[in-house]
Protein 1
Amino acid sequence: MTEGIDPRYAGFESWPMDQRVHALVEANARAVQAALQAVPALTRAAAGIAERLQGGGRLVYAGAGTSGRLSLQDAAELPPTFDFDRTEVLLAGGDDAGSSAKEGAEDDAEAAVHAVDVARVGPRDALVGVAASGRTPFTVAAVRRARERGTFTVGIANNPATALLEAAEVGVLLDTGPEVVAGSTRMVAGTAQKIALNALSSAPMVEVGALYGNLMVAMRPTNVKLRRRAVEIVSAATGAAFGEADAAFGRCAGDIRVAIVHLVSNLEPATAAGLLERHGGRISLALAEHGGARE
């Protein structure tokens, strides 16, 4: 289906620029709809991933071409956003394929098996394989090998009844149909994959203590803008004025979570940090144990 030719776009070459752009943008509505239809499968996948991450495991991605590069991007965003760096990306063609296309590498199933073994992907980990076609040899082989090693596996594909969906413990179908530019699955199919990856890597972050409510309490304040945002998060979470939140943030060595527990509980920063550690960084659980609110 992703390789099909949609007759609605047969005259694309002769269309005026505004009509071409409109068609390309409008088509992405199908990506959102496909992801919404996949919510039940995505939920099962996210629950399995959360269980592995909560137990100290890694989030591993496997893919080729656009799907692999989307996986690489998703993994790269987790450390600054959630302070989560237990990731591994198995990319067909190796690291160089992250910045330049290596299309032939997707056919190398043996390389995928080798990559899974070298990375020691195992029962504590979760592996997400992504391929628009659902039959990319590298990705299918990576998922099969990881599952043989006891890993929780997820397969994301844009075509139904494909090898990738069957190989994984949880198959996620993103039924986006044919592209405006026939066969160019970096478009609608890729957009749907990005939506799915966002959900699968963000929802489980609750279990590793990276969210309090919907606030990014584990983000890394590595520049002036992000430091201000961090203080604003402390302020929003505690009700403290910006200046008070800023002072607490400083006392807590720039740790948003410790600053929140410190302000809400009136515990000393070191004590607040210990309380958080006992609860895996979960602010709500730490405060529930303390049993006190900010006076």
Protein 2
Amino acid sequence: MQYRTMGRTGVQVSNLCLGAMTFGQPDENSFMHGVAADEDTSFAMMDQALDAGINFIDTADVYGNDGLSERVIGRWFAARDNRREVVLATKCRFRMFPGKLGSGSSRRRIVEACEASLKRLGTDHIDLYQIHMQDIATPEEEVQRALDDLVSAGKILYYGCSNYAAYRMVQSDWIADRRGYAGFATLQAQYSLAERSLEREHVPYMQQSGIGLLPWSPLAGGLLSGKYRKGETAPAGSRMEKWQSRMERFDSPRNWRIVDAIREAAKAVDATPPQVALAWLLHKPVVTSVIIGVRTPAQLEDNLKAAALELPDDVMAQLDEASAFPVGYPYDFIQGVDGRW
């Protein structure tokens, strides 16, 4: 395992982060029903990850029914007495109960959600507390003030954002700088060979500001795992078998070109397609740790090998070319003049 500084902090985290969205088998009201891991398997995977050197676990209050994922992690901490070995990240923002007060990132909601997460996780502090998505109904100054106060209270150590637009990140940084707040340490966002939109605005700003990137869905919901082939039905038991609409969205010439390129790269470096897709991200600027979401110990064992996988320049170039996307105006105009944007 390799370690990197977690964005604007002094904390060293593994370059792979164990995502806990699949932890605990939720009931039929959850979209994760039938595609998650039971508690015993979740415990086994956390043990396996820790033994392999992963010291970073990411969850959220909405993962599973009524904070199920956080409860599973809390019970694991209690059973293993290993809280100090883990950099723990969780999130708030989405709906946890009915009514006007059950979602959002108002000061009231953030403080209440943090207290609830601390209780479920069985800990007195959260290492990285993240706003799960920007809230256009709440002024960003209120968000920053609430988070900074939680730092002062010792309930969280650092804070980050997730699913934020670039303009909102810049606004947040300006407010934090003006008010003397800590500011966002990290951004958690969708990033993969299939989804590279962050490269337009987010990545260039993060390179300047020092914010670290935590990519989620690095295998694009399984598209980049090598399981799927154009024109064929999804394998039995796979997530795509249940989520047919997502499989239909992935059915594009660009995506199948990427899948083919990953398979070729995997042959060239003697690795599996998931390892290649994860390693490509680890070779990209500002990436702190790639969040891997697994359901079985076998999937985790495969993903772990990506942490140290080196991709030669020619392989990276082939993957970049296969996954190239139209950057649009004004980026293409600027690139046409200066060679980059």
Protein 3
Amino acid sequence: MPTAAFLTDAPRVAGSEVWLLSVLPHLPEQGIDPAVFLPVGAALDPLAERLTAASLPVTRFKRLSDLPALTRDFDVRVMHAWGLLTYLRLLSHLAQPRWVVIHDQLEFFYPLGLRAFYRLGFRLTKGWGMKKASGVLTVSEWADGWLRRTKLPASGFVKNGVDVDRFRPATEPERAALRAEFGFTRFTVLVPGRFVVEKNQWAALRSARHARDLDFVFVGDMDSALGKLAVQFKRLARLGNVRFLGRRHDMPALYRAADALLQPTLAENQSLVTLEAMASGLPIITTPIPAQAELVEDGVSGLLVSPAPHLLALALRRLSVNPERARQMGEAARARVLAAHTPQHTAAGLAQFLQSATRLLSQQAINHKPSRPKEFHHA
């Protein structure tokens, strides 16, 4: 069975690390034997414990320079980097084949000048470093096309998946109990995500001012400058229909208790939050940026709406007075996830790419003696 080393320089757990935990346990049944390499750090200790509990070998490392030797005997190396220069520093020192799985948002749909500035920054940092990869996988069709247009070694995409047993609709008695527990009494709009510019919770907060007959529940870190500003805005605008729950670990229950998901995002690759809510049977109101439009079929599993606050509020209010339409959208959303976005789907697609990479390397080894990777030196 081919062996695959999955490497990350993550300082904490985010979507790309959740992806490891949800997908890698399914690789052995697809013919791939995975192992994970994580930096030493308290923020990653719970992830390491959960990976180990899922029967995945975990190695902790102190320095990037440790990784070439630690991973040399694997059949393929797969990396996702947080650091802007990690690919540039590390990839050429890893043995071949060395792949990248990139979850980065790639494009921020800001006004044109800011978009161009971000695009240039990506190409000069992570994009430049990824040129040393044997192949680059991503998680959406749109992102795969984006990488190809930038002349990177794009090799395809594997759709994100979520656990449809953990993220599922509630039964009616369960839903009633959860709503009572959370204090949800009216049509309740869930708004998950960190308070940062690209997630655009600012538009969601302002839409609450246009729909005071609906309740808006924000979930996510509030320690940013935008988060602190949001708290002040709520007070000054007297938004009694807004609640800030902060960071939570009971998201499946919150999805099951809510009536709709609002995600006025300006940058996604393939959003796990969107997929979790869809699997939970929620109608999705989100922006028509390409990666979101891949997931949400407008008018069927949700609504694609320009992130103007009054338009978001109008869409939500129309949904709130038509519970049958909201129910049908939620059912269609879950059906879409079941058909193509489970961890098993993702693992099957990923295994095909990795097996192809190892077969290609074996064929090359027959014809050429493989070169030894360069020694790693700190910059």
Protein 4
Amino acid sequence: MSRYNHQIDRRYNQQYSVNKKPYFVVTCIALVIMIILLTCAIIVTRNEYKESQTLLADSSSEPVIENSSVADVSSSVSETSALESEASTSSTTASKAESKSEVSSNSSSDSKFIKVIENYSVYNFVGQTGDWRLRLANRLNKIDDYTPPTKYIGSKYCRNNDNYKIDERVYDDLIAMMDAAAEDGVKLIVVSAYRSYERQTNNYNNKVNYYINKGYSRKDAENKASTIIAIPGTSDHNLGLAIDFNYLEEKYENRPELVWLREHAEEYGFVMRYKKEKGNYTGIIYEPWHYRYVGKEHAKKMNQLNMCLEEYVEYLLKNS
């Protein structure tokens, strides 16, 4: 009886083993598929995040334009030239700025501001010092196809191990500043740096085409695009002297990293390029994350005088 039961158990176990094999194989295949799908989802999510951050970085340092129909703000080279020509006739331009500008303290018969965008003005100054550290890049000082000597910053200093470029003459001071911050327990991360003229042109043209496909006329598409992507040659990043750090939103202005920069950037030759109270000089929104290299002596002097770069360049030219 015992032997008979043993044979039955063995046949049962064999049958059970045969029956469960397909389920085991199916389970393994399902697990593999789930792992593959999960991996793909993670990769797609990460790429979408990087693309969104890149868009934020590419659209930083942009003009403050609340309404794209307000004015055609230098949306092409010819329009920029026309704007510069208008700037040269100071009396006519000043009267226009006075009638429209909301900055009453600076609006007078000899105002240095010209009205180009709703609620904001741009400092009516065209000029350069010849010092590469102080070179202006804005709507009245367009740099066109400029290529600085560049060097990779290093992936360990950049977001998501990307590797951005900077003007090679800035490299030593930039790395010294980031290392000093690390010693103070603050991790500075580069989220945007040098942008080539070609990249800026592609970004701008792609945005123009996007709005054309949405039904905008070319002129309206260019106006709309310029509120998001800087017109090529007018971005501080085209010079290779600007860095965006850590955060690209004003609400993070009091995070330790941005506080540290406000307190120490000057020591390494950097200044906050677009301060809150200087929007009517630069035409750019407040960007507590955007720092510009000007050299140690200039950074100290600019902060002492409480001047933005537009003011400081004119100050130097007048006193040279």
